Amino acid sequence: MTTDIGLTERIRTVMELDPAKGAIEFREQWYSFAELKACMDSIDAILAGAGLGEGAPVATILRNRPAHVAAVVEVIASRRCLASVNPFQSPDKITADIRGLDTAAVIADEEDWAMEPLRSLAAERGVVGIALETGASLTARRVTDNATPTAPPYADALPDIAILMLTSGTTGPAKRIKLPYSGLEKSLLAAIRAYETKQSGGITLKSGVAMLSGPLVHIGGMYFTFDALANGRSFCLLEKFSVAEWVRVVSTYKPRVASLPPTALRMVYDANVPPEALSSLVCVRAGSAPLPLDLQDQFEERYHIPILDVYGATEFAGAIAGWTLPDHKAFGKRKRGSVGRAQPGVELRVVNSDSGDELPAGEQGILEVRTAQAGKADWVRTTDLAVLDEDGFLFLKGRADDAIVRGGFKVLPRDVEKVIEGHPSVKTACVVGIADERLGAVPQAAVELVEGAEPVSPAELSDFVRSKVVAYQVPTRFVIVPELPRTPSMKVSFHEVKQLLEAS
Q1: 242 within some domain
Q2: Per-residue pLDDT tens for 175-209?
Q3: pTM, full prediction
Q4: What is the spatial distance between Cα 267 and Cα 388, in angstroms, rounded to a whole number?
Q5: Exposure class string for 291-312: b at 16+ Cβ within 10 A, else e
Q6: pLDDT tens for residues 413-468?
Q7: How many CB atoms lie within 10 A of CB 202?
Q8: Distance between first and last Cα of the chain
Q9: What secondary structure letter does DSSP report for 152?
Q10: What whole-number distance in Å separates Cα of residue 137 and Cα of residue 9?
């Protein structure tokens, strides 16, 4: 069977190979490819009946549930445009987000449709509402009385855009980036086709079981879902990360590779999970946030499982750099702290922030990326400070837009955070800039302590940091919190930390 087909055709083909085979395991129940496809067909019928065809934006509140996987795959595979909505916010914020999208259709869980603000919005705007349910079976039904939208005008069609993708919201309020269908397709299919050509085989269902523990609303979860289905690979879906459930899945299905953000890696390590429970893993991929080097060392020493760091961004539709097992074996110690080398089809360079001139290996500047995944042939400038060494390994040095200028002196928050986290009682620190009338801005820190650790006061933390950095780098204030606010992808939310500090 030919493998030289597009993403939509490929997913349709996978669905028909063995319809009775389990596609997704959720809460210890398997849902077959046939059940997944039936739910997709129900969604398509409702949207088609509403007159919403190619390019029509569809607001979708994305929870980690199999029926939501069906919604994601159907909307994008049918060449409509998925407008992702974060479920981890208040009903009023969810409703305001959907109102701003101005779509003619809204897909949400039965749980979400129980929210009065969402029902009121649907009635006011005359949208077609689809309710999803994951129970004994996967269902999708029209929840609004109207079969077609009744209160135009609505947002224009976006025929070339697959996803209006939410950014992680780490540094500010989450915004949406237009991800072209062509870029998503190229990113997904390039590696798949290379593998199948090497194996001299066609499209087949794979025997192994993968696992998604990250949020579907994040680009990493979205990319994983399409990669798994396009590869014909069944997977376990965790509604949210927990050590017990993650270990159950690894122990039961014995995947060779797992992906975890650093926060979840720390949770696994702190839970002292027995090494034999993870014996099937040949590596763990880490991403979405900086990987603390001490955590990597501790985890690898205890479990003898390499951690392969990955670097990506929403605007690039996935990873653009990362470690491979051969690179880890050859360079793991020498290139400690790197996020790996450019992915196939990706070019990286570091430039002077003012002139834009490319800098030689080893010099720090602004990272630029060129990749078909972004749907552009031009170099795209990031906000990341970076160094590329002579072997092409990428080292991230913080974000250029995070720099705090304190009375003319530049403070890089990530550098200060590392110093604070060197205190034995500190689990995680977040440093942000707070406006100051005299100095322009000053660094302040929110700190989460290690559970059960020796108590430490803000004054003691200040003295500890002062002993290790120059005076202007010391935060003017330390606030100890029970838990730092995080995004759905488990990154610390700098934006919410700043709001917390400004309000306290």
Answers
A1: no
A2: 788 988 888 888 788 767 665 555 556 788 998 89
A3: 0.80
A4: 31
A5: bbeebbeebeeebebbbbbbbb
A6: 988 999 999 999 999 999 999 988 778 789 999 999 998 888 999 999 999 999 99
A7: 10
A8: 62
A9: -
A10: 25
Percent of the chain with pLDDT over 90: 67
Q: What SS3 class is residue 24?
A: strand
Q: Which residues pair with 440 in a beta bridge?
A: 436
**How far is residue 464's CA from residue 431's CA, in Å, rounded to a whole number?**
15
For residue 457, being part of any structural domain is answered with yes
CA 257, 258, 262, 267 torsion-angle sign: negative
Domain assignment of residue 492, given as a range: 403-503
Contact 95, 117 (CB under 8 A): yes
3-state SS, residue 77: helix
- Write out pLDDT tens, residues 281-330: 999 999 877 788 989 999 999 999 999 999 987 777 778 899 999 999 99
Compute the half-sphere exposure of residue 32: CA atoms within 13 Å on the CB side of its CA.
9
- Contact (Cβ atoms closer than 8 angstroms) between residue 118 and residue 99: no
* Residue 225 domain-assigned (yes or no): no
Q: Number of folded domains in the chain? A: 2
List strand residue ranges (DSSP E) for 238-305, in order. 257-260, 283-286
d(CA 281, CA 428): 27
Task: Give the DSSP letter string of 189-219.
Answer: HHHHHHHHHHHT--S---SSEEEE-S-TTSH
Burial class of residue 404 (count of CB atoms within 10 Å of its CB; 0-12, 13-18, 19+): buried
Last residue of a domain, one of 182, 203, 233: 182
C-beta separation of 65 from 237 below 8 A: yes
Which conformational region is residue 378 in: left (phi greater than 0), alpha (psi within -120 to 50 degrees), or beta? beta
What the block records as the tokens of 1 is: 């069977």
Query: For residue 464, what is the enclosing H or E element?
Result: helix 458-466
Query: How far apart are alpha carbons 305 and 23 in whole angstroms?
Result: 28
